[in-house]
Amino acid sequence: MSASLAAPLPGIDDVQSYWDRRPCNIRHSKQPIGTREYFDEVEARKYFVEPHIPGFAQFDLWKGRKVLEIGCGLGTDATNFARAGADYTGVELSAESLALAKKRFEVFGLKGRFHHGNAEQVDSVVGAEQFDLVYSFGVIHHTPNPRAVIESARKLVKPDGELRIMLYAEISWKAIMIEAGFDQPEAQSGCPIAFTYTADGVRDLLRGCFEPTEIRQDHIFPYVIEKYIRYEYEPQPWFKAMPEEMFKALERRLGWHMLITAKPV
């Protein structure tokens, strides 16, 4: 496991302040924030750019089952779990993000429970509940003590339940670009913490709590940033010239997103 910053690491208050200033994906729409049109555009853009998410989450699989999301953000995946009929609970550190997730459920008439709290103490935040799925996409690598999240989450997973998480991949195109000074972990600069992992690092992180059943990589962001922020989707020339099968092979080997499915032990 490696980190994007040298020690000492920032604290949880620094992490919360960072995401409160600009919640993840908040600029995915030009519509008035909090409207139905805004949330629809946020969802459309998120899944256009990261089309692997629905297949990883398998929203329909959790109909009638209890789902806990650690780090619900603006509630995009939350909305789709709830729409599919899951008994949904979300935990979020950023008060700004949490308020929008709650608003989203109100706008679409969805049912769910939301908690403001630290993922490292998620069992205390949620209370004595057991879930069929604990899900977290792109969150755990941003907290000072990811292992604490895993240990806390283990207390909440049913014996026959499942953990599905996304962590940033150390051996990836994005990590190479960051190291070379051509990129940064997040859209906004100054991210306090962004750990990255190898497959062995994932196993070490989960050891004694969960046993991985699948670890795979996906997602290379291919678009010209200057055009992307204007909602124009033009691939970088080196990706544009690449056959789709070749690009997918590159994503499988050097994708930024490490997609992990695991069973409790």
Quickly name the level 1 CATH class. Alpha Beta
Q: Number of DSSP strands?
A: 7
Helix content: 25-40%
Radius of gyration: 18 Å
Task: Name the structural class.
Answer: alpha/beta
CATH topology: Rossmann fold
- Contiguous helical run count: 12
Q: Looking at this structure, what is the CATH superfamily?
A: Vaccinia Virus protein VP39
Globally, the shape reads globular
Please give the order of strands in the largest beta sheet: 3-2-1-4-5-7-6
Q: For the record, give the distance between the C-alpha atoms at the N and C termini, rounded to a whole number.
A: 22 Å
CATH architecture: 3-Layer(aba) Sandwich
- How many domains make up the 3D coordinates? 1
Largest sheet: 7 strands, mixed
| Uncertain ranges | none
Overall pLDDT: 96
H and E string: HHHEHEHEHEHEHHEHHHE
Strand content: 15-25%
Task: Describe the SSE topology.
Blueprint: H1 12-21, H2 36-49, H3 52-57, E1 66-70, H4 76-83, E2 87-92, H5 95-108, E3 113-116, H6 122-126, E4 131-137, H7 146-154, E5 157-168, H8 173-179, H9 199-206, E6 210-218, H10 225-228, H11 237-240, H12 244-254, E7 257-264
Parallel strand pairs: 1-2, 1-4, 2-3, 4-5
Antiparallel strand pairs: 5-7, 6-7
Summarize it.
Keywords: Methyltransferase, S-adenosyl-L-methionine, Transferase. 38% of the residues lie in helices and 19% in strands. By secondary structure, it is α/β, with parallel strands linked by helices.
Provide a descriptive summary of the structure in words.
With 265 residues, the chain is an alpha/beta fold. Helices cover 38% and strands 19% of the residues. The two termini are 22 Å apart. The protein has one domain: Rossmann fold (3-Layer(aba) Sandwich). Helix 4 links the parallel strand 1 and strand 2. The mean pLDDT is 96. A seven-stranded mixed sheet has the order 3-2-1-4-5-7-6, with helices on both faces.
